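hey m, so remember when u said the tokens were messed up on ur end? i reran from scratch. heres the input so u can diff it against urs
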Amino acid sequence: MHIAVLVTNTDDSAFARRHPKDPQKFDALVKLARPHWRTTSFWTTHGALPARLDDYDGFIVGGSPASVNGGAAFIPPLLKLLKQLVQERRPLFGACFGHQAIAAALGCQIVRNLDGWVFGLHEHELVTRRPWMHDDEPERLALYAAHVEQVASLPPAATLIARSPACEVAGFAIGEHLFTTQYHPEMSHDFITALVDELSPEMGAEVTARARESLTRSAQTHRFAEWLARFFEAATR
């Protein structure tokens, strides 16, 4: 299986340079469940997009500190590609900004969270089971989060997969070819811990304290990695 990773991260700070980049994070997530799969990354923020879609079995679009509403030059070409991927029913997974960008490409609004930042480890309720999930899945799943915006409503023909008190549309699917989450399955515990420390002046004492308390527990990354692998396997049959 060969997966194209559409990199949308615009952070070029000293902090970002000290940590693995998104291509490495998503490659590690994929290989956590399927070590023999390979990924190729495209920095959409620098204008790079796949030239031949048929060269890839599936596509991942990741997170970013940028806003889908922010007007960055890379966003319109990215949304055009995402809309094409959905229309052609190519296997597509989106995380955080990627989740929002896919929804925006399908005509949905992206809005600011009513309660501000969602940061740290957060649980969300699984509303609808999908074929790539196991029959014995728990009712809730914990993943790392770092977002201040969210999808306002489901895209046409989409099925709600997950929700939380802080985020009503925390994940959705369309058919067997599209799967999204508002959260960050690619983040490690070490990375999110460092990110909380880095952003604490911006987040404020209350948000930082909640995030640090949440990180006494770990995300269910292995379970999500298996979901992702099974999703791409089912979508390419």
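this time it looks ok to me. The radius of gyration is 16 Å. if urs says something different then somethings off w ur setup not the seq
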